[in-house]
Predict the 3D structure of the following.
Amino acid sequence: MAMRTILVPYDFSDCATDALRVAAKLARLTGAAVHVVHLYEQMTDFHTENQRIREDIEAKLEQVPTLPFLKGIELKKFMLRQLSLTEMFKNERLLDADLIVMGSHGATGLRGIVGSNTQRIVRQAPMPVLVVKHRIEDFDVKDMVYASNFTDQDVEKFDAFLPIITLFDPRIHLLKVNTPRSFERTDDSNRAIDRFLQRYGLKKYTASIYNDLSIEEGILNFTKGIDADLIAMATHGRTGFFHVVNGSLTEDIVNHTHFPVLSVKL
């Protein structure tokens, strides 16, 4: 799958700029266009402040292309008025994106996307979401952790990560976490991982069955142990592999790690 459009929710905060910097690196490698979108809340219709709010946002958006790391990148910028989460992914401009790159914390002016709603976007976006936790001058992926239960559904969704894998050719660390509450025999886990490898034929990989008190702790501890560059995982909403944490595992990982997290909805 080619990467043609990268969407960056942007509220002019340092966090959003960190995400935009990573998006620019991906765009430079792929030739993709970067779409910067600002969602704003305005006063009630006909309020005299509405025009001033729009003009202020437009002025700020005009300054975005002057950021040095965007030089030579095809950039489109637009603002949308107070869409709900459901409406957001019905918008043609947003739905057309191949990847969302966003920060995990926002300031103000983008309450519909950044900030406390980052985890909701991770869970509900129909396209992959890359969450950036801090400033990365030159985004690179040499080691990627793919945390999975390696069910048939998980395996099918691995295709969504292939554009990033093709770009960076990382060593992929296949990870199955066993916990007291979610235990699987080693032989069963190995068979599931073998089926995955038969389908994708990875050349640079490790495979680990990791024991910890929770799936979240297992993923985070393993990732820290190898100092990986990226965590990739599917979010199951409220069913499947992650039901043991009420569907919130991917969001918890996003909250509690400084590593970038690439997720896709099952």
User: Anything to note?
Assistant: DSSP finds ten helices and ten strands in the chain.
